[in-house]
Amino acid sequence: MKTPEPDDKLYLHYNYIHKLCQIGAEQIRANIGKPDIIIAIGGGGFIPARILRSFLKMPNEKNIPIQAIGLSLYEDLGTGEVGTIGKEVIRTQWLDFGALATHFDTLIGKNILIVDEVDDTRTTLHYALSELEKDVREQAEKLGRTNEKTIFSIFVLINKNKPKKADLPKEMFEEGRYFAPRECEDSWVNFPWEAIDIDTVSDLKEISCDLVKLFP
Ligand code: 5GP
C-alpha cells in the first residue's frame, strides 16, 4: 500500500462522519425537534444530510424530505484544487418552489434544517440562509401568511475555529439552532468521499474516534 506523503490536512473516516451525524441528530432532536425538511448544500452537504435523515427519524415517523441547492465559491469553479477557497457565492441550483408546493408544501412556518459539511469562512452558510429567508419572507407576504414563524437551523459536520468572513444571526447560536458536533483548527479537511485511495485513509489508525491527523 502506498504511504501517504506527510501533510497537515485532516483526514476523516466514513465511520467518523457517521458518528458526527449521530451526535448531531441527537442534539437536533433535543433542541429543535424533528425538522420538517432538510436543505442540503451540494455537493458536500449531500452525504451528511442523508445520514442525518436516518438518525433523525423516529420509529413510525415519516422520512424527512431532502431538497438540494447548489452553491460554489467563485474561485473554486473549474479549478478542482484542494486547499483553496473563493469569495463570491455562485448559485448553481436552487429550490423549485412550484414542485415543492405541489409535492410537499410551502416552506412557510416550517422547521427547516440547512446541511453542509464544513463551516470554513461561513460565506456559503450566510448566503444560503439569507437567500432562503428572503424567499420564504416574499412567499409569506404574497400569501398573507406573515404571522407564521419559519425556523431555520444549520448543521455542519465541522466548524473551523477561525475568524469568519460572514455572519449568521446571533439568535441562531443563542437559541441552539447552529449544530456543529466537531470544531477544528484552521486546517484543510479531507472528507472520505474525496479520497483517491480510500484504503489508505481507512487503514489509518483512528485516534479514539477523534479527528484523524495523518502525521500528528
Ligand atoms: P465557506 O463558505 O464556509 O468558506 O466554505 C464552504 C465550502 O468550502 C464548503 O461547503 C466546502 O465545499 C468548501 N470547504 C471549505 N473548507 C474546506 C475543507 O477544509 N475541506 C473541504 N473538503 N472543503 C472545504
UniProtKB/TrEMBL annotation:
<keyword id="KW-0328">Glycosyltransferase</keyword>
<dbReference type="GO" id="GO:0032264">
    <property type="term" value="P:IMP salvage"/>
</dbReference>
<dbReference type="GO" id="GO:0032265">
    <property type="term" value="P:XMP salvage"/>
</dbReference>
<keyword id="KW-0808">Transferase</keyword>
<feature type="domain" description="Phosphoribosyltransferase">
    <location>
        <begin position="25"/>
        <end position="134"/>
    </location>
</feature>
<dbReference type="GO" id="GO:0032263">
    <property type="term" value="P:GMP salvage"/>
</dbReference>
<dbReference type="Pfam" id="PF00156">
    <property type="entry name" value="Pribosyltran"/>
</dbReference>
<dbReference type="GO" id="GO:0000310">
    <property type="term" value="F:xanthine phosphoribosyltransferase activity"/>
</dbReference>
<dbReference type="InterPro" id="IPR029057">
    <property type="entry name" value="PRTase-like"/>
</dbReference>
<protein>
    <recommendedName>
        <fullName>Phosphoribosyltransferase domain-containing protein</fullName>
    </recommendedName>
</protein>
<dbReference type="GO" id="GO:0004422">
    <property type="term" value="F:hypoxanthine phosphoribosyltransferase activity"/>
</dbReference>
<dbReference type="InterPro" id="IPR000836">
    <property type="entry name" value="PRTase_dom"/>
</dbReference>
<dbReference type="GO" id="GO:0046100">
    <property type="term" value="P:hypoxanthine metabolic process"/>
</dbReference>
<dbReference type="GO" id="GO:0005737">
    <property type="term" value="C:cytoplasm"/>
</dbReference>
